[in-house]
Amino acid sequence: MGEVLHTASNVASVISTVLILGESGVGKEVVAKLIHKLSKRNDKALISINCGAIPENLIESELFGYETGAFTGAQRKGKAGLIELAHEGTLFLDEVGELPLNLQVKLLRVIQEKKLMRLGGLSETEVDVRIIAATNKNLFKMVQEGKFRSDLYYRLNVVPIEIPPLRKRRADIIPLCYYFIEKYNRKYRCNKELTPEVEDIFKRYSWPGNVRELENVIERLVVTTQMDEIDEKNLPLFFIEDNQSVYERVKLEGIIPLKEAFEALERKLIERAYKKYKNTYEMAEALGVNQSTVVRKIHKYIKSNALKHD
Questions:
Q1: Are residues 43 and 117 in the same domain?
Q2: Do 178 and 68 lie in a common domain?
Q3: N or C, which end of the chain is more exposed by having fewer CB within 10 Å?
Q4: Do residues 199 and 177 lie in contact, with contact meaning Cβ atoms separated by under 8 Å?
Q5: For the chain, how are helix, strand and coil distributed in percent, rounded to 5?
Q6: CA-based diameter of the chain, in Å?
Q7: Same domain for 53 and 147?
Q8: Which residues does the UniProt record annotate as the domain Sigma-54 factor interaction (predicted)?
Q9: What is the model's pLDDT at position 66?
Q10: Residue 76 and residue 88: Cα distance in Å, rounded?
């Protein structure tokens, strides 16, 4: 992420087109806003549009605007599109891979010629916009499949910035947790904090929804946990039921060593029994093993782990 932010800050001072790549929820719009904020255009508008959220029959008029009488229901005086509203500022095109092919041609002309024509218009309007695009799709593959114009792809891909998913930057997880806890503590006037056990669970979890999922989970925990301390019992079930690091390897690789899978399950059972029962004899009875085995497993999975943390 340090390299991502370094690249973003360097490219902010020029007007080169930027293509931000990454899975849904990694923070592509946050990086786009950072680039605009650090640019010489920061006193002008940053106009954002999600190309996948607007119906195909409306996106042309939203982007390029329209003249009087361009279509049924059009305003009498016409309307400027989002590209015109971003004049001298920045236009952020999120999910640009969803842009229809016929509009890709018009966008290419805006990038190349700095001109656009409104829907139903007879003359072109000059526009000065800095374009930042983002996608969670493989645009190069879409070009090969004929689903995205190659000339537009190369115009957008001047400075690519790839944001890695949260599972590949695990060092960010806990700092982000506390950033969002502070945010929602202020918003809801709370004083919540995470236990070390919850931190460990969060660090092992794969976060398929990335930073957006993490923020949603933190907000949910802040508003639903009655005590100031958020512990394991407050977490949604899917955090507790799976040893996510092993689960993810099974999903990605198909097969992992049985010993590794067995130890993950054994560790989880020992940890739960250790918290639930008062002594090792009760633990042994519940787990169906002798007491000496329980003592050995506690030392292996719990005490040795505590010593590592110390």
A1: yes
A2: no
A3: C
A4: yes
A5: 55, 10, 35
A6: 87
A7: yes
A8: 1-223
A9: 87
A10: 26
Residue 270 belongs to domain with CATH number: 1.10.8.60
Q: Which of 218, 304, 232, 228 is nearest to 263 (CA)?
A: 304
Q: How many domains does the chain have?
A: 2
- Boundary (domain end) residue, out of 137, 164, 191: 164
How far is it, in rounded angstroms, from Cα 219 to Cα 181? 7
User: Which residues, 6 or more positions from 67, have their beta carbon under 8 angstroms from its beta carbon?
Assistant: 74, 78, 118, 119, 120, 121, 122
Task: Note down the domain range covering 61.
Answer: 2-164
**Per-residue pLDDT for the chain (310 aa), expressed as one digit of tens each?**
889 999 999 999 999 999 999 999 999 999 999 999 999 999 999 999 999 999 888 899 899 988 875 555 555 677 888 999 999 999 999 999 999 999 999 999 999 999 998 888 888 899 999 999 999 999 999 999 999 999 999 999 999 999 999 989 989 999 999 999 999 999 999 999 999 989 988 988 889 899 999 999 999 999 999 999 999 888 887 776 545 555 555 555 566 677 777 777 788 888 888 888 878 898 988 888 899 899 988 888 876 554 344 3
**One domain for residues 114 and 235:** no
User: Looking at the structure, do residues 244 and 282 belong to the same domain, yes or no?
Assistant: yes
- Regarding whether 175 and 115 lie in a shared domain, the answer is no
pTM: 0.73
Distance CA 250, CA 261 (A): 9
Neighbours of 230 (CB within 10 A): 22
| CA distance linking residue 307 with residue 154, whole number of Å | 53
Contact residues for 56 (Cβ-Cβ < 8 A; gap 6+): 100
Cβ neighbours, 10 Å, residue 147: 12
Last residue of a domain, one of 164, 197, 216: 164
